[in-house]
Input
Amino acid sequence: MKKTILVTGGAGFIGSHLVRLMLKKYSDYKIINLDKLTYAGNLENLTDVEIFPNYEFVKGDIVDAEFVNQLFADYNFDSVIHLAAESHVDRSIEGPLEFIMTNVVGTTNLLNAAKDSWKNNFTNKLFYHVSTDEVYGSLGKEGMFLETTPYDPRSPYSASKASSDHIVRAYHHTYGMPIVISNCSNNYGSHQFPEKLIPLFINNIKNNKALPVYGKGENIRDWLWVNDHARAIDVIFHDGKNGDTYNIGGHNEWTNIDLIKVMCKVMDEKLGRPVGESENLITYVTDRAGHDMRYAIDATKLKDELGWVPSLQFEEGIRNTIEWYLENEEWMNNITSGDYESYYEQQYAKR
Ligand code: NAD
Ligand code: DAU
Output
């Protein structure tokens, strides 16, 4: 094997797409997927690739330093691609501590274990930290986030991610650890847990449930197909400059309400409903506390330096995504049984 790579959070939404890409593209890399399997982690996301001989799954918690240290001793990793995180803003508003533990303490545990295991010999080693555009704060009508935009996180989630970015950079500057960081905009695609806008609303439209639009629905997000994010991570992992940061985004801004109307229209077509019917499910509810107004990524650096551009247009991507959720009813049913219903009641009853 050319490399042994630890991917954390590989059973989650983006992590599972990355693991699939790496396994299919690099038969000479051994991929170890470490995941705690929280509510958001789902091994069903990887059933098509779990039989690959160069794949191994390990269940474990990055907050457990002893466990993490032992894992590094057992596997002698060459590189880490770190995606494990608590990732949902609404949950961070309800309970910030879990976010600090996993996103800040967990990241620091991984850095410590990597540093000890690599014994300050960093030749051909890399710690790749996957982060978010939310660390840059919230934009007004104009402008885009650049890699040089000052950090201004505003939710417990984004503050915990910003904190972890700073710690990763500190290990680079203080100990010389080779690192790269990427900050990506909102992802959409298959296998996303239905607490996030797109899969939640697809599921609600299908089941004729209310569509809880926060505030006036005027907030703007910049949507990127999840496989294009995984492609970008692959490129940055191989060709990114040591110590650098790369923004990843789709140049694809939508107000929430416009996006929701497109989803309603496509769903009406797919479900054989009169076009316009599902829009009746739109219900304006109390806004998210501290709701960031607009995110928009300038990904020029990634394009100019490493040649990455998104491969899929949004109009096609959202159609494919809707089709995937409609065709994979069992995946959705398995996920929405159990604790999901009580989370949903608790999150939305008060709005
Ligand atoms: P996700 O919530 O779908 O998956 C997170 C995964 O991490 C899950 O499989 C979960 O079980 C695992 N995990 C959580 N806590 C853990 C712990 N303590 N130890 C080990 N594993 C643990 O998240 P996602 O949307 O796939 O996001 C992945 C990464 O990408 C995160 O770091 C997130 O901040 C970042 N990101 C996400 C988006 C997006 O739009 N979803 C955009 C930019 C960046
Ligand atoms: O920008 C990258 C970030 O995108 C990632 O770092 C996060 O992990 C990811 O969860 C996502 O954060 P958002 O808060 O933007 O995503 P979410 O899907 O929760 O919400 C998208 C928009 O839709 C946001 O403006 C809030 C709104 N919304 C969301 C939900 C769940 C609603 O109006 N109603 C809802 O029920």
Q: What stands out?
A: The domain at 3-189+222-252+290-312+340-349 is CATH 3.40.50.720 (Rossmann fold).
